[in-house]
Design a protein that fits this description.
The complex is a heterodimer.
Chain A: E1 2-6, H1 10-22, E2 26-30, H2 33-42, E3 47-51, H3 59-67, E4 76-81, H4 86-95, E5 99-102, H5 107-131, E6 143-144, E7 150-151, H6 153-160, H7 171-190
Parallel strand pairs in A: 1-2, 1-3, 3-4, 4-5
Antiparallel strand pairs in A: 6-7
Helix pairs in contact in A: 2-3, 3-4
Chain B: H1 12-19, H2 26-53, H3 57-74, H4 77-91, H5 98-122
Helix pairs in contact in B: 2-3, 2-5, 3-4, 4-5
The chains are: A alpha/beta, B mainly alpha.
Chain lengths: 191, 125
C-alpha cells in the first residue's frame, strides 16, 4: 500500500519508514502535519500514519484536513501517540482517525493494524462498486457482473449482500400484466 | 546509583527487538538510527535549555515530548522518564524547576551515549 508518514522526530520517522518498507509498503515521509497535508492534497494515499504531537498542524488537525480533502477514495488514518488518556482517543476519533498505535511503536501491532486498514479499504472499494453504475439490460433487466456474465438482479444482489428474495406482484403489474394474462387464459379455456 | 535510580540506561531487550525489525537491511538501518539519535539529541537539549531560559513552557513541552519518543523507541527508559518530567512541567505552563530536570536529562544522555557507542560497534558502524 502507499503510506504517508507524518512524524516530526527524525529518529522515529526513520524507524517507522524502514519498518514499513520492510513490510513491502511504498512509503512517503512528511516532517510535520503541514507538510503531510500538502503532500496529501497533491496525491492520494490510502493510509496515513501520523504522530499526534507535531508543530504547526498536529495529528487530529491533519485528520481533519484529510477528511475535508480533495480525494473521493477513503484514507485510513492511524494516529501514533504517547498520550494515553481516554479523552485523547475521543478527540482523535472525532477528528476522523480510524485507529491508534502507542509510542514506542509495537511493530507487530502496527502490522496487524495495517492488515485491518487493508481489509477496510477493500470493503470500502466493494461498497463503492455496488453503489456505482451497474450495466443493466434495457429489456430483461439482467445485470452484467464482474466476470461479464449477465445475471438476474436477484442473483446479483444475493451474491453480494445478505438479502433474500420472495416473489410477489406489485399493484401496477397486477393491473397491467397479471390480470390481462389471467383474462386471456380464461378466454382460451372457454373457447 | 544517583543516575537513573540505578537502572541501566538502555533496555537491551528492546534495542535487540528494534534491531530485528528492519529485515535484510537491519544492520544498516540500526546503525543509521543510532547515529541519527546521537547527532540530533544535542540540538534538542540546546533547544530545551533555550526554552527554559526564555520561560517558554510550550516549546519546552514540545521538545521534551519529541525527545521522549526517540528515547522510548531505543529503550532508553531513564532518559525517557527525564523527558516526561520536563513534558509534564511544560504542560503545566511553567518552566520553573526545568534547570534541575535538564541537568538530569543531560546526565542520562551521557549514559545512553556511552551505552549506544557500544551497540554501534556491535552494529558494525
Amino acid at each position: 500500500m502507499k503510506i504517508l508518514i507524518a512524524e516530526d522526530d527524525a529518529v522515529s520517522r526513520l524507524a517507522l519508514h524502514s519498518a514499513l518498507v520492510r513490510l513491502g509498503h511504498e512509503v512517503s515521509d512528511a516532517r510535520d502535519g503541514l507538510e503531510a497535508a500538502g503532500l496529501f492534497r497533491r496525491e492520494y494515499f490510502p493510509v496515513v500514519v501520523s504522530d499526534w504531537v507535531m508543530p504547526g498542524l498536529d495529528g487530529p488537525g491533519l485528520c481533519r484536513a484529510i477528511r475535508s480533502g480533495p480525494h473521493a477514495k477513503y484514507t485510513y488514518v492511524i494516529l501514533v501517540t504517547i498520550l494515553d488518556a481516554r479523552a485523547h482517543y475521543v478527540e482523535g476519533l472525532d477528528a476522523g482517525a480510524d485507529d491508534f498505535v502507542s509510542k514506542p511503536v509495537d511493530w507487530d501491532a502496527l502490522q496487524a493494524r495495517l492488515r485491518v486498514a487493508e481489509r477496510i479499504l477493500s470493503l470500502q472499494e466493494e461498497v463503492k462498486q455496488l453503489k456505482g453504475l451497474l450495466p443493466t439490460c434495457m429489456y430483461c433487466k439482467k445485470i452484467r457482473d464482474d466476470a461479464s456474465v449477465w445475471v438476474p438482479i436477484e442473483q446479483y444482489l444475493a451474491r453480494r449482500t445478505e438479502a433474500s428474495f420472495s416473489h410477489g406482484v406489485c399493484p401496477e403489474c397486477l393491473e397491467t400484466r397479471l390480470k390481462p394474462e389471467l383474462e386471456r387464459a380464461r378466454v382460451r379455456r372457454q373457447t | 546509583m544517583s543516575e537513573g535510580h540505578g537502572r541501566p540506561p538502555l533496555d537491551d531487550g528492546k534495542l535487540q527487538q528494534l534491531r530485528q525489525t528492519f529485515g535484510e537491511s537491519t544492520e544498516a538501518v540500526f546503525a543509521d538510527l543510532l547515529a541519527l539519535f546521537l547527532s540530533e539529541t544535542p540540538a534538542r537539549l540546546d533547544a530545551l535549555r533555550r526554552a527554559a531560559a526564555a520561560e517558554d513552557a510550550a516549546t519546552l513541552k514540545w521538545e521534551a515530548h519529541t525527545l521522549k519518543g526517540s528515547c522510548g523507541l531505543l529503550g532508553a527508559g531513564p532518559m525517557a522518564a527525564a523527558c516526561s518530567a520536563l513534558d509534564a512541567l511544560g504542560e503545566s505552563g511553567t518552566t520553573a524547576g526545568a534547570a534541575a530536570l535538564l541537568d538530569r536529562l543531560e546526565a542520562e544522555f551521557g549514559r545512553v551515549r556511552r551505552a549506544l557507542e557500544i551497540h554501534r560497534g556491535g552494529a558494525g558502524a
